[in-house]
Design a protein that fits this description.
mainly beta, OB fold (Dihydrolipoamide Acetyltransferase, E2P), 4-stranded antiparallel β-sheet, 0% helix, elongated
């Protein structure tokens, strides 16, 4: 099965990591919550699958378009 990148649409800080590696996720399940301009913005699974890797840490500042996780 091919890996799928999970990418953020906004620049900001990783406020909270919600999902854990190995979790079975449905499309649109929240993986990470970003904080940008005092708003909480969820980064969600683009499709059904298993979370294989989280590439960011809570509190980390990341740019728009950054890959935050990998799914399979």
């Amino acid at each position: 099965m091919a890996a799928t990148k999970v990418v953020t649409d906004v620049a900001g800080n990783v406020w909270k990591i919600v999902a854990k590696v190995g979790d079975k996720l449905a499309e649109d399940d929240t993986i990470v919550i970003m904080e940008s301009m005092k708003m909480e913005i969820p980064v969600t699974a683009p499709k059904d699958g298993t979370l294989k890797e989280i590439l960011v840490e809570e509190g980390e500042a990341i740019p728009e378009g950054e890959t935050v996780a990998m799914m399979e």
